[in-house]
Design goal:
Elements lengths: L5 E4 L2 H7 L9 E7 L7 E4 L2 E6 L19 E6 L3 E3 L10 E7 L8 H5 L14 E3 L1 H18 L7 H26 L1 H20 L11 H7 L4 H12 L3 H19 L4 H7 L5 H12 L3 H7 L2
Parallel strand pairs: 1-3
Antiparallel strand pairs: 2-7, 3-6, 4-5, 4-7, 5-8
Helix pairs in contact: 3-4, 6-7
Length: about 300
C-alpha cells in the first residue's frame, strides 16, 4: 500500500484518536506528544493548532531558532487548513504538547471577535516563538488550566471558560513575541536596512510613476519573511504600518530631490507616484509645515 503523504485531521476527535488521546470535548483538546509515530510526512489540521515543542535543539533551523534566542521551548501556531511538518525525519515533535481547538468553539465568545488580531497564526514555522524557562512555565500553567477545565463536565459555561483560558494563553504569546522582537534587535536592524535598500531600488525603478505602491507580499518575500511577520516587525520597530512608513520614506526622498536637483515639484510629484502636484504639496506642507517650493528656497 502506497504511503500517504499528508494526514488530514478534519475533527478534533480524529486528531485525538490518531494521537492516542481521549476526547474530553469535541471541539478542543490538549495532547501530550510522547514520540508520536505517524507514517505520513505531513499533518494538516482543519482547526487551530498550537504546538509547544520541548525537544527543539539549539540552532534549530526548522523553527528558526538562533544563538540570540531563548532555547527552553518553542511554540508554533497553525491556522485552520495549514499543513505542518517538523523536519525531514519526523512529522510532529517527539516531546511537547499540542493544543487544538475548532473555530466553532469560539462562537458567541469574546475571542471570536478578535482571534484575527493574533497575527502569529499567519507566521511561518521558521518564525516560531522561542521561550525562556519562566515563559515556558507560564505557558505550561495556561495549558494545565485548559486541561483541568476539560476534565470538568461540559455545561453551559464550558465554551466561555475554555475560550478565556485560550485567550489568556494567546495574550501571553503576544507579550513574548514582542519580547522576542527586542532580543532580536540587531537582526531586526539588518532587516530594516535591507528594506530601506529595497525601497530605494523601488523608487529608482520608476514603478511609482505608474501609481504602483509597494506591498507587503513582495517585500516580505525579498526579506525571506511572511507578510504578517514583516508587518508586525515593521510596526514594532517603527510604530508605523507599511503604508505609513513608505509615505514617510517617499517624503524624505522628495526633500532630497528638492534640495539636490532643479526638478520642479510637478516632476518630483510624478516620479514619486503622487496623483498630482496639488496633492503632493498638500501632504508635504501637512508634514513639514512648509510648501515644497518654499522648502527648497529655505535650505538654499
Amino acid at each position: 500500500m502506497e504511503k500517504k503523504e499528508t494526514l488530514d485531521f478534519n475533527t478534533v476527535h480524529e486528531c485525538n484518536r490518531c494521537l492516542d488521546c481521549k476526547t474530553l470535548h469535541p471541539q478542543v483538546s490538549l495532547i501530550n506528544l510522547e514520540n508520536p509515530c505517524l507514517e505520513q510526512d505531513t499533518v494538516k489540521f482543519e482547526f487551530y493548532a498550537i504546538l509547544l515543542i520541548e525537544d527543539c535543539p539549539d540552532e534549530c533551523s526548522c523553527c528558526g531558532r538562533r544563538y540570540y534566542d531563548y532555547s527552553n521551548a518553542t511554540m508554533v501556531f497553525l491556522k485552520p487548513g495549514e499543513a505542518f511538518r517538523m523536519n525531514e525525519e519526523k512529522t510532529l515533535p517527539g516531546k511537547g504538547f499540542l493544543l487544538v481547538f475548532h473555530p466553532d468553539l469560539l462562537f458567541h465568545t469574546t475571542l471570536k471577535n478578535h482571534i484575527n488580531n493574533y497575527t502569529f497564526f499567519l507566521y511561518r514555522k521558521e518564525e516560531a516563538l522561542h521561550l525562556s524557562q519562566r515563559e515556558t512555565e507560564k505557558i505550561t500553567c495556561c495549558l494545565w488550566n485548559i486541561e483541568e477545565e476539560l476534565h470538568y463536565s461540559i455545561d453551559m459555561h464550558s465554551r466561555t471558560i475554555l475560550s478565556r483560558h485560550i485567550e489568556l494563553l494567546l495574550d501571553y504569546c503576544t507579550r513574548y513575541y514582542e519580547r522576542q522582537f527586542i532580543t532580536r534587535e540587531n537582526q531586526n536592524k539588518a532587516i530594516l536596512e535591507k528594506m530601506e535598500r529595497l525601497f530605494d531600488d523601488y523608487i529608482a525603478s520608476g514603478k511609482l510613476q505608474n501609481g504602483k505602491l509597494p506591498t507587503s507580499e513582495p517585500l516580505a518575500g525579498e526579506l525571506n519573511l511572511s507578510p504578517s511577520y514583516f508587518n508586525d516587525l515593521l510596526k514594532f520597530e517603527t510604530g508605523k504600518t507599511l503604508e505609513q512608513y513608505f509615505q514617510f520614506k517617499r517624503l524624505e526622498v522628495a526633500k532630497r530631490m528638492l534640495l539636490k536637483s532643479d526638478a520642479a515639484p510637478t516632476i518630483i510629484a510624478r516620479r514619486l507616484g503622487y496623483p498630482n502636484v496639488q496633492y503632493f504639496s498638500l501632504i508635504f506642507k501637512k508634514i513639514t509645515g512648509i510648501a515644497p517650493s518654499a522648502y527648497r528656497h529655505s535650505r538654499n
